[in-house]
Write a structure and sequence with these properties.
This protein has about 55 residues and is mainly alpha-helical. It has a domain at about 1-30. The protein is built from two helices and no strands. It has helices at about 5-25, 35-40. The chain is elongated, with a radius of gyration of 24 Å.
Length: about 55
């Protein structure tokens, strides 16, 4: 029974921390564009050629 005095506050602290992290990521724009990143890997990157050195 005494374990509950430790586990309940620990669970509340972890839950509040996760909620704060989620809210901060929402305000930071983390979830604004969910469609482009999965399709970005399909586009070829342009290869820049290095000039030859004599």
């Amino acid at each position: 029974m005494s374990v509950l005095y430790i586990m309940i506050p620990a669970a509340l602290v972890l839950g509040i921390t996760a909620l704060v992290a989620f809210i901060l990521s929402l305000r930071g724009g983390q979830y604004d564009d969910l469609d482009t990143p999965p399709a970005r890997m399909l586009f070829d990157d342009e290869v820049k050629k290095k000039p030859r050195q004599p």
